[in-house]
Amino acid sequence: MLNLKQLNSNTTSIYTIGLSIIAVGLSLSKPLIGLGQIIIVIAWLLEGNFYHRLRSFFTSKLGLALILFFILSLIGLINSSNLGYGLTDIKRKIPLLLLPFFLFNVQLSSAQLKTIFKVYVAGVIASSFWSVFVKLGGLGITILDDRELSRFNSHIRFGLEICIAIFGLLYYLSKTTTTKPKIILSLALIWLFLFLFILHLYTGVLVFGITSMVLMVFYGFKSKKISFRFLLLLFPLLLMVSSTYYVQKSVQKFYFPQKTLEEKRFSPYGEIYQHNLENDDKENGYFVYRNIAPEEIEYAWNKISNIHFRGKDLRGQPISSTLIRFITSKGEYKNQKSVMALTSQEITAIERGVTNCNSLTTNAFEQRMQSTIWEFDNYSRGRDYNGHSTVMRWVYWKTAFTIFKNQPWFGVGTGDIQDAFDQQYDLENSPLITKFRHRAHNQFITAFTTFGIFGGLLFLVFLFYPLLSLNLKNNFLYLAFFIIMFVSMFTEDTLDTQVGITLFTFFNTIIIYNKDTI
Q: What is the largest CA-CA distance in the chain?
């Protein structure tokens, strides 16, 4: 029978179990995240010696720095009128306090840390396999957007998890000398890298690319070998130049077609074409609302599709608009002849809400680029931008800046941040519908808007103090993790969701506390 004394002498094993459960829960199950934290608290209680450990933590600059954001959120309640929302936010941020506090002075062996990371990677890979299973029709459901394939949490958080797994695998691969483990780690790394593209995790790919470039530049300047330094610095430069060129070509392709369509009066079947000269919307550079024979295309479409011309496509858009935009993108007249010439693949694509023929021949990242250009073009024309994620982020940032200017010193408070956004949207008569009236989608802007100038600066201390004070920039694993999370905060409120908060705090805590043994 295992007595309390025996259990107390081996609490690091209990900590390892708790951390492993959190590690797998990050990608597979939110309830497991909570269970893992409970086990960590139990291990802490079994160790006893409470006064000494409490005193040790609260007299430690590092310990206080790691919970600073949680403390800021608590103080922000004082400046809040909506305590219900504020307390909910505090509850969500408990891992920011719990993990740094209960793991303080807990020293794990390199073997235990490696086990935790293996469990984490296993969870990420299992989640990726499930996504592929769903993509291949395993659940018998129609997936219109590959982002829906992230089944256990947000596709953005999943992309960050994969990035951390990839750089972690690189780290452990560099430390592995035996052949079999090297092969296993390499296969896992290759699969997760490919999976970023299979699932079209745009944010994940972008974060991976930026992180890789920053690491190359950092280690390039540190390298004493001139040839190695040259290569590490040259690659990011070439990537930036090629990316700029690619964006310019994409914009040019969007606005300037190789040819234009003559505006005709009659279709081949004699219907008078409609031309809306005031609407200059384009697809692949061709005007959408010109050269339309509405009766012909309705008649022809109803003959080839089970979705009525006056119905909606699978994305909920009027299928008439989808059809017109798709035919326009092909550089054809909108008449019976062009509809009847559609292939079965094109008909299916239109029914699924695809508005541009290039989507059938270009890769998903090219499609995303064209979609982003279209979003900004649409926004610049004063059109409806609901559901357009890139443009909406720009609107969120502008709204947050207005709120910040009104209360710059102490912010609006933890509990009132969403209310402040809602009120500002109303004041501006924003066209955003309720479900899209979000906060800043930028952790830095959110921090300054919530806590003001002083609180925002303390948030930066929370982020950078461990990196700078412990010289962790020389720790590859921590530096890669830090860059991944830092970059994500420019387009997301990373520390305002359960998974995002736990993902950051989990790795931030265990790497910092075990920097010498990891």
A: 93
Q: How far apart are CA 518 and CA 484, in angstroms?
A: 19
Kindly report the number of other CB atoms within 10 A of residue 433's CB atom: 10
From residue 431, alpha-carbon distances to 5, 263, 309, 435, 491 in Å are 64, 34, 28, 12, 21
In 3D, which of 12, 34, 14 has the Cα closest to residue 24?
34
**Which residue shows structure tokens 């081949």?**
268
Phi then psi for residue 348, to 5 deg, are: -60, -40
Cα 243 to Cα 195, 209, 358: the distances in Å are 22, 11, 20
**Tokens representing residue 286 in the block:** 């061709």
User: How crowded is residue 49: how many other Cβ atoms within 10 Å of its Cβ?
Assistant: 8
Flag the least confident range among 197-201, 212-216, 448-452: 197-201
Q: Which two tokens stand for residue 166?
A: 């990839």
Mean pLDDT of the region 195-201:
86
Based on its alpha-carbon atoms, the radius of gyration of the chain, rounded to whole angstroms, reads: 27
From 349, 350, 367, select the one nearest 358 (Cα to Cα): 367
Q: Which two tokens stand for residue 18?
A: 């708790």
pLDDT value at residue 86: 95
Ramachandran angles phi, psi of 431, nearest 5°: -75, -5
Task: Find the helix or strand (DSSP H, E) in which 245 lies.
Answer: helix 226-255
Residue 257 clears pLDDT 70, i.e. is over it: no
Token pair, residue 484, equals: 């991944």
Task: Give which of 142, 150, 245, 144 is closest to 204, Cα–Cα.
Answer: 150
Look up residue 332 and give its two tokens.
């054809």
Contact 441, 128 (CB under 8 A): no
Contact call for residues 332 and 368 (beta carbons, < 8 A): no
Kindly state the average pLDDT of the residues 53-75: 96
Q: How far is CA 138 from CA 24, 151, 209, 272, in A?
A: 23, 13, 31, 48
Strand partners, 262: none
**What confidence score (pLDDT) does residue 5 get?**
46
pLDDT of residue 1: 40
What does the pLDDT average to over 192-201?
A: 89
Residues 430 and 422: beta-carbon distance below 8 Å? no
Do 517 and 110 meet the contact criterion of CB atoms below 8 Å apart? yes
